[in-house]
Design a protein that fits this description.
binds ligand NA7, 9 strands, 13 helices, alpha/beta, 293 residues
Length: 293
């Protein structure tokens, strides 16, 4: 398929590379020039990249970024063609997604929201999980592209529902990780080290994918960004905003948000969100360590 891929960040670049590997005809664009994908053509604007594309796939930071890629000067809107499909793998506002979709629908263009879970590792290995909202028949046409970049996709309903489900997923990741980090901090302070705690966690009902993924990084004290704290913070805000719109109260997430607020003030935005542990450690006066740290 002819695909325009817009946004070559931590997630987007390996996704575009996997599309090339699967034999698709890919044109890429990134706001800051200089990022390229081997085997793909580079365009100088979203409008240029989208010209002649069957599918325009986006992976950019946030709601404003998606809006400007689509509707800014030299945005995708200038190259819309009937029958084209726009897919958004960024995590953004569900209500904004519905508005963007409506605006392009009047031009005969389909809109599918397909945020992902699986982080940098999933993106690089082509094992992402797509959380999808949109028309069933349109999603069917995207199957080869999902297969090139991911291992599974789940349709959550019409356009916007993928984003809604994604926010509900990241809410859990943020709270589960916070529980793990608080548990290690308390255990360390009480004299039980992380290496001793982990086999117990893994053998019990506390075990989770979040712990499986994050524990090795925590034990090595490697807080380089797999999923940058600033983006998890953005998702927490999106979830709290969506909750407010829907008149839902999320007390645990509100508390976790305060920790992210302090972490951002302390300059941790570009570290992995796992670095929120270091705040708990600072407050407790301990350091959680693995033998290899
Ligand atoms: P990164 O690595 O921070 O990459 C973000 C990308 O978004 C990067 O290509 C940015 O371009 C691009 N970006 C940011 N703001 C804009 C605007 N205003 N216009 C156009 N492009 C923009 O994030 P990830 O790859 O980890 O995550 C991407 C999404 O997936 C995000 O929603 C996550 O929550 C999930 P730059 O290179 O800075 O010019």
């Amino acid at each position: 398929m002819r695909v325009a891929f817009l946004g070559l960040g931590i997630m987007g670049r390996p996704m575009a590379a996997n599309l090339v590997k699967a034999g698709h005809e890919v044109t890429v664009w990134n706001r800051t020039p200089g990022k390229v994908v081997e085997g793909a053509r580079s365009a100088s604007s979203p409008a240029e990249a989208a010209t002649g594309a069957e599918v325009v796939w986006m992976s950019v930071s946030d709601t404003n970024a998606v809006e400007s890629v689509l509707f800014g000067s030299q945005g995708v809107e200038q190259s819309l063609a009937e029958g084209m499909t726009i897919v958004d793998s960024s995590t953004i506002s569900p209500s904004a997604t519905r508005k963007f979709a409506e605006r392009v629908r009047s031009r005969g263009v389909h809109y599918v929201d397909a945020p992902v879970t699986g982080s940098k590792v999933g993106s690089e290995s082509g094992t992402l999980i797509f959380i999808v909202g949109g028309d069933e028949a349109v999603i069917e046409t995207l199957k080869p592209l999902f297969a090139a970049m991911g291992k599974q996709f789940f349709r959550m309903g019409e356009t916007g529902k993928g984003q809604a489900a994604k926010l509900a997923m990241n809410l859990q990741i943020a709270i589960i990780y916070e529980g793990f980090a608080e548990a290690l901090t308390l255990a360390t302070k009480l004299g039980v080290d992380a290496e001793t705690m982990l086999p117990l966690i893994q053998a019990s009902m506390v075990r989770s994918g979040v712990v499986d993924y994050k524990a090795p990084f925590v034990l090595k004290r490697d807080f380089s960004p797999n999923f940058p704290l600033r983006l998890m913070h953005k998702d927490i805000h999106l979830a709290l905003d969506a909750a407010k719109e829907a008149r839902v109260k999320l007390p645990a997430l509100e508390t976790v948000e305060e920790i992210y607020e302090v972490a951002s003030e302390d300059g941790y935005e570009n570290l992995d969100y796992a670095a929120t542990l270091t705040l708990l450690e600072k407050w407790a006066g301990v350091e959680v360590k693995g033998v290899s740290a």
